[in-house]
Amino acid sequence: MHLDDGEDGNLTRILKASVEDLMKICGKYDIQTNEVFKELVFERSRYAYNDALEYFYTNFLTQINNLNLDKALEAIKIEGELDANP
Hints:
The protein is mostly helical. Helix content is 76%, strand content 0%. The chain is built from 4 helices and no strands. The longest helix is centred in the C-terminal third of the chain and has 24 residues. It is elongated and about 55 Å long.
C-alpha cells in the first residue's frame, strides 16, 4: 500500500473497517499495546486494499483463533476470580 494524492481517506477507511471487523471477531484489543492485533489489522487492510479480502480469513485463521482463545481464557480467569471472592 502506498499514499498517493487523495488516497489518505481510502486508507483511513480501510484501516478503520479492519479494526472494527477484527474487534467483532477477536474481541476488543488495544492496537497500541497488542502487536498481534496490530499486525492483523495491517494485514487485513492490505488484503482489502488489494481486493483479496476473501483470502485473509483463511490465511490468518491461526492468529485470529489465538486472539479469540486469549479473550476466552481471560474471561474465564476473571470469572474464576469473582467466584473465589464472593
